[in-house]
Records
---
Amino acid sequence: MSKLNLKLLGPCLLAIAIDAMGFGLVYPIMAAIFSDPHSGIVGAAASPQLRNFYLGLGYGVYPFFMFFGSSLMGELSDGYGRRKIMLLCIFGLALSYLLMALGALLPSIALLLLGRGLSGLMAGCQGIAQAAITDVSTPETKAYNMSIMSMAFSAGVIVGPVLGGITSDRTILPIFNYGTPFLLVAALSVFCGLWTFWYYRDANLPKGKTRVDILLPLRIIYEAGRHQRVAFLSIVFFLMQVGYGLYLQTIMLVLQTRFGYTSSQLGLFSGLIGICFVFGLMVIVRLMLKVWNVVDIAKLGLLIAGIGQLLSALLPHEGMLWALGMVVGCFDMVAYTTMYTAYSDAVTVERQGWALGVAGSVMAIAWVVTGLLTNLLPVLGELGLLMVGGLSFILSFLMMVAYGRKWSSGAVGVGAGVYD
């Protein structure tokens, strides 16, 4: 297969884009819904503390269910086949976004949160789609297919927040409202599900059965704690994800409260960060790899992203926030990409899937924590919480410096399979 088989792999690429699109789309809309007294989702007379509580809950319920759902769906796809479980996830995503749309339109906070939780449970869709593409890739086409996957993910990251921001702003079109973006993603998910049903077929025969282990994510974390290198990296990655989670959640509130941003303006800001993600992934990381090793690149990414976030808290001027947002987005992706590579380098070939599963679980836990930290807004304010996120980035940088000193990046996989 010298070229991409669009009929076979197109549904998988669209599923990856939808997953990335839905993730980025939600944050500007959530910030707008819970801050807008006219949205009706929370009573107009509700206190800021109550609004912050529900906002944090809206942020945190997705990664909480993702923590269990991503590994569960991956395990099921190994046993029952990619196609069946991918269909389950895609149509599950369609239902979740329909529930969120109804929650925004009725309005009903219970439906909004139920849909948000269900979308987290179905978040294994992206991993299954990636595995499906890998299944049909040959050594000659694997690199090309992987690059196409990155492009699909990047497109979703950029388009999602922009689409969500614009189609939720009724000042652009009277028919737009907070439910419109969710309806659009639900419709796109249904289309993707039908495309998958008609054209995608499993490349490998499924096992036919598998043992469902609900506690698998907890077992993965426990195992990670017994492997010194992976445990150390997990602390670094946790601090990094808390830092960026606080940035993404809090910067929206800063722009909204200080400069009166509408949901469309918040979406454009998020879209710019998405573009910087792609630039960091496709350009900066590749250039740096010609000069430095993975650990040094990760350290630099963590440091620059942290400084950018701290300066955002110290210099909250509109133009400065946009400029610093590009810096944080670009170098967060630099750190994110190289952190995953560091996880891979820390273990043997046989443990690759396990190590990357640990990284996914750690990220989910970190985003649950950032959702809970939103409740500190009445105490610290938006800028204070932004500062906490920046300090978390800096602490992750210091931990990565210690990691680099203890384990040379040149010793790839040395002692990887040993709980040393």
Note: The first helix runs from residue 6 to 35.
---
Amino acid sequence: MQRQTFTAIIHKEDDLYVAECPEVGTVSQGYTIEEAISNLKEATELYLEEFPLPDLNRPLLTTFEASYA
């Protein structure tokens, strides 16, 4: 069994947290951040059982500021 670290991007929509894995394209949700991540992990593992990924380069994740009116 392979093991790999993936990225989770989380944002809140109404009263749910939505978690997305950009490397795989899986998305899930939960009422807490922990639940959203747990559900994303399960969704990603199920996806990868059917569609294994080749070796991936890790994406660069950073932040930036933008001004607006």
Note: The longest helix spans residues 33-50.
---
Amino acid sequence: MAELKSIIEENARERERLVSLLNALRESDYARVLPNGWTIGVALAHIAFWDLRAARLLEKWIQEGGQGPVLPLDADVVNAPLAVLSAAIPPKNIQKLAAEAAEKADGLVAGMTQAQVDEFLKAGSERFLLRALHRGEHLDKIEKALVND
């Protein structure tokens, strides 16, 4: 099973990387198109959405005493309409939303006990706890696009 301490450290590292990127972006950078057709702004709003979903899922799971399944979600079905909505969010709002969503998700994970983490991992997916995985994938693409442009 994954150690809570290492999960917290990895999440913090990727959250700090996210915040650093957000602080370095110019408003025009949010409109840059990534290889998958999303803009940087859409990718950052996407990260925020999935952090918020993970946070809500964890809140609910904890409130229910670790009971109930971790419900899967068809990411492709969610991501397509989410990209359309995300494109309408102004860059400054995306910046605030992404930073706050990461902080919220990571805070919930950091407040768990190792026993809760072990139980949650039995019931669900590591990606809900280890937010660094999802953030890192998208941050890698964004940083590559910024360097190559």
Note: Residues 32 and 39 are 5 Å apart (CA to CA).
